[in-house]
Design brief:
The chain is an alpha+beta fold. The chain contains eleven helices and 43 strands.
Amino acid sequence: NDGLSVLVATTQQVFNEFGAGQPDPTAIRDAVRYFYRQQPDAMRYLLLFGDAIYDYRNINRGASPAQLANMVPVYESRQSLHPVLSYSSDDYFGFMDETAGQWPEDYEPGAGISNRGDALLRVGVGRLPVKSTSEAQTVVDKLIRYATDRSLTGDWQTRVMLIGDDGDFNIHQRDADQLAEQIETVAPAYRPERILLDNFPQQISTTGTVKLPAVNQLVSRAMTDGRLIINYSGHGGTLTLADEQIVTLSDILSWRNRRLPLIITATCQFGRYDDPAEQSGAELALLSRTGGAVGLLTTTRPVYANTNLLLNEAFYGSVFRPINGQMPRLGDVMRDTKNNSLSGSVNRNFTLLGDPSMRLAYPQAQIVLTAVNGRELTANRTDTLRAGQTIELTGDIRQNGQRLTDFTGTARLTLFDKAATQTTLGQKGNEKMTYQTFTNTIFSGHVPVQQGRFTMRFIMPRGIDYAVGPAKLYAYAIRSDSLADAAGSSEQLRVGGSVITDSVDTEPPVLSMSVVSGQQTGEVWRVVGPDVTVRINLSDNRGINVARSGLGHELTAQLTNQLPVVLNDEYVAKGPNGRQGEVIHTFQGLLPGIYTLRAKAWDINNNSTEGALNLVVSERPGLTLRAVRVSPNPVSEQAVFLAEHDRTGEPLDWTLTVIDLNGHQQYQQTGQCTNCPGTVEVGVWPGQSSLTNALPNGLYVVRLQMRAATDQTTATGSSRVVLSK
């Protein structure tokens, strides 16, 4: 698909040619180096397609002979007892220099970490830790969908979530803030989102453990809405992140997301993939059939916070930097990240669980703000936007400095007030930490793009911070055919002050609500749970307020007996004048029952309105098989089996069986699909038994058992087929 030249080799082929037939990690490294020396500029990426085990000889019988044959060994340190200085690493396979074949471990107990074994990666290495053909198909389907499904394109591709653990004198939170500042500097079109755990009040569970359920919800919603990257720095283990368990096994298994992030976990052992007795959280996220991650930069053993930051900084110094005019592939990023953060074994313990030849979903073109209120914007000129002022922003979609006149579609502009100073709560006995971030949205709206140019008009709300200071504008655009997109930002706008208006506005906004995929009966909406999506439509003669400086003037929605949800950041204005728009919000995990939803909105002149909606949520029924069809029937050469079901767009797997009239199974086939159509091909029958033996003509029964991966419900169906050869 990307025009790369690819060589596929089995481990047995490599062991035979370079390891005298023995399963030896050095044989893999020697094979890579053989091809690298032939074409150093062409040999760029190595994908290890299989799981690994620390027990090379399988002494503990952790894997069956068949499983062991499908594994691709990982380099294991000779030191195996030290909790930090031991390591497993795929870096070894990317060392191509003459003196890099032997990896020294010349430390002494108590002497600390030695850097003498540091070597430069020349090849970007990644691994897909799959153990079966079904896991392999799941991951490959995810990679293909990530690269080709343009229906998923959106501004999530410009957002990066940075999570910092609390405690430890705020080191992890400061690291997250420092990384966010780095992104704002090196890639200003990308929007960092700081999630610092000490910002959220701790809750004590009945067992006495400290929890932060608000953070769990933020992470789950980010997975659903989509992020280009989700980055965690702090404590963790093989299945959880943070002492407060902000990501757990239950969370990972519950993710139902189609927009797949790259997840970075600068924590201990979350990506350990060489232990057959336990599947790590990173493996589960990558191998998930219902969502999860498209790849992970994660750790296989314990690591240190200071070297975590060193590697993280190297990553963000590489991931947004083009190579020869194109954005880098993950293998390029991984190679440069490792080479710019050498720090002994704790650097080696970071690994890429993903395809090194894959590119992240970077926007392809640039958005440039060209004029404010009809006046050209130049590098030496800034404009101040005042409360009550009518604003007109004009911009271009460009590539290589030229406007793309064939770009017609939609742009989304989001304007933030000045960076706000925020202070953490100071829990866990640590000092409070202050930092600055753009969190106060002033305006967010969609506007048409015609021939690579757009103009957005709106009125500045009264609820801004009146002190004059630098604002931040983010922009994202998508072409009508979804085959091209663009991103950009501007820091040449200032916000503050106000203008005097002649008229007094006392007219409140108009608010209406509906339920997506729901049915309205009189005053009641009925919908199937557990996730319910609500659309709130708003319009006003001046515009809807989303600024947060005016205390209490927030756009909110509240379900019965639940806390209000602030929706300011989810409101999007529509059209060129910015006076009408909508919020689409999903309430997750609702139990069957009767609910009342109340919403409240304000316009830019502080007039408010409210609305209510009655909602009946029912339990979601299980998977239903509507029909199992056979074509052609009778069959003389080959029959195709089709299944009609009610789970379009979800991952399904199935077992298809052909049985004779005596009840004997003659043929069986298994299969799966990820983004399944409403009618799916579940098998092809050549009119033979599973052992390819000829079968007598006659009537056979077809049985199909299908399972939905999202809720584990099953359904069975049957049909009949006549064999006539």
